[in-house]
Amino acid sequence: MQTEFLKDQLVHPIRIPTPFAVGDVFSYLITDDKIVLVDAGQYTEEAFEVLDDRFHEHGLSLEDLDEIWLTHGHPDHFGQAARLADRADAIVFGHPKERANFAGNDDGDLFEDFFQKHNIPSKFTSKMVEQLDWLQQFQLPIEPEWINEGDELTSGEMTAMVQHTPGHAPGHVVFNTNRDMMFGGDLLLAHISTNALINFDPDTGNRNKSLLQYRRSLQWMRKQQGIVLPGHGEIIEKASEVADHHLEEHEKRYQKIRRLLQEPMSLMELSYNMFPDAIKEGAIFLVLSEVLGYLDWGIEEGAIHLDESQMIYRVA
Ligand SMILES: [Zn+2]
Ligand SMILES: [Zn+2]
To answer: Domains in the chain, start-ordered, CATH in brackets?
Structure first.
């Protein structure tokens, strides 16, 4: 795509294959006064070699890396950062609400409590725990320098404001640059509608209302000009259109769930009603994340009631 940022040769997308269902992940090389990577791919030899090759194509070696800016602490984005940073003596930046993710803490106990409270059958919980364990091999723990909303990073000519955009992950950030584009991480993806995952606040251990956070982050995004360089999929030229589309899809699903809850149901029953095929295909964690998001929404609005003695939801 011939946009300004590509013409000025400052930012170079690097497509990295992943072992994950989401497909390839994009890392972005900035060749400014400093050499910066936005996200670093997962910890695999293949990802390392792709980066090494692409650095060489630009007349650079991985040792030239000055800084790594991390959008969030999922393995496909941060897994390899520690290895690269060690090698180049580079500084890594990330948001403190990702502390648990960056440290490789899988929040296993918090998830187990949550599943138990909601009577999720053990065949599913053991599968989810297995999936969490499997992810560990694709990341090295790291403690970055902390950045917060409003902080500014710079590579030289380019500066980027840190915007905290939780929902997909508690400390997800967008790097909003002075060049009519932003590094969007997994906030806005053209091909995936809801991606607000079940997650916990690392400071309190409380479960975040991640869909509500995510919708607030999308509300911010829809007001932004400029293009979005995402973590996966096509470059997004009109952030507002894609954000609006996702917000409308949420609204439709929310209304559907309110209709279904004329009949009282547990989280698991409602999940079967909404997404039976996805559950069969093994995407139980995504399904529970999604359905729970709408339940949080309904409870916050007073439209849905939760009977906590039996963990049964119904319309209020
Ligand atoms: Zn992610
Ligand atoms: Zn991702």
So the answer is: 4-259 (3.60.15.10)
